[in-house]
Amino acid sequence: MITVRNAESHLKDMIGDDTDDIKKVWDAFKGFCKEPVEGEEDKQILFECGIYDFTGEELFHFGFVRQFSIFEDEEYDHMEQLHCLFYFKPTEELGTLEVAEWSMDYDDLDTFFNHIENLREFKIPLNLKPISSEIYQEEV
C-alpha cells in the first residue's frame, strides 16, 4: 500500500524519466490520484495555474497537487502536498490564464478530471514546452 512517506517516490516511478512531458505526467498523476494512500480519508486534488514569483522570478506556474492530511493518534497533525509543477516564461496568452480548482468541489475524481481537461487554462499550456519542471512533496 502507498503511504504518505513513499507517495513521492511512487509517483516518480510511475512517471519515469520524462518529467517535462506534461501529458505523460498528467496521465500518471490521474492514475496515482485514484490509488488509495494509507490513512487518507478524502482525496484532495488541486489544479492551479497562473503567473507568480514564488521562485524569485515571475514565471507561469502550471501544476497538479495531491494533498494529504496527516493524523497522529487519531488527531490532526499536519498536511503534506505532493506537487507536479511546470514552469514557463510568461507570455501575453499565458498571462490571461489563472485558476485554482479543488476536487472536493466535484462529485467524484472523474468529473473533476474531465472538467480540468476541458478548461482553456489546462489546454493551452498542455501543448507548450516548459522551461523546467519539478515533482516534490512538502509539509504545509
Describe the structure.
With 140 residues, the protein is of the alpha+beta class. The chain has helices at residues 7-15, 22-34, 109-117, 120-126; strands at residues 44-52, 59-72, 75-88, 99-102, 132-139. The chain has a five-stranded antiparallel β-sheet. It starts with 6 loop residues before the first helix and ends with a strand. The model has no long low-confidence stretch (mean pLDDT 93).
Would you summarize the structure shown here?
The chain is built from four helices and five strands. It is α+β, with helices and mostly antiparallel strands.
Content-based structural category: alpha+beta
Strand content: 35-45%
What's the number of extended β-strand segments? 5
Average pLDDT rating: 93
Q: How many separate helices?
A: 4
As a percent range, the share of helical residues equals 25-40%
Computed over alpha carbons, the radius of gyration is: 15 Å
Major sheet size, sense and barrel closure: 5 strands, antiparallel
Which sequence of SSEs, written as H and E, runs from N to C? HHEEEEHHE
Note the topology:
Layout: H1 7-15, H2 22-34, E1 44-52, E2 59-72, E3 75-88, E4 99-102, H3 109-117, H4 120-126, E5 132-139
Antiparallel strand pairs: 1-2, 1-4, 2-3, 3-5
Helix pairs in contact: 1-2
Features:
140 residues; alpha+beta; 5 strands; 35% strand; globular
